[in-house]
Amino acid sequence: MTRMAVALTLALLAAPMMLPPAQAQQATDGERLFRTRCGTCHTIEPGQNRVGPSLAGVIGRTAGTLEGARYSPALRQSGIIWSSETIDEYLANPRQLVPGTTMTVGLRAAEERAAVIAYLNGRMAAP
What we know:
Helix content is 52%, strand content 0%. It is mainly α. The protein has 6 helices and no strands.
């Protein structure tokens, strides 16, 4: 066997070990989904509100409280504290969780919601 063949064989054997864990893949999928489904109205940059509020640091924040962001009275009065669970429920059907919210876009697929939430959680941990 030539050196090239040995190197190629070792690379192919090592490739599965170099794949990102499922969570990292989910966050990558979440970033793509965030950009395509959420990014028109929201950003993850602190202090940069769009039609919807910045989602930087959203986990643990009380709904409707980010200074400078526009909120419906219903969301401001909801008392929701954003967690992975409440974001999942909201994304599944925003108007069911908060009747009167102005957010109309939802993610019906549980895997898509989980991926976006993993992305948001990953962004919280980023420096």
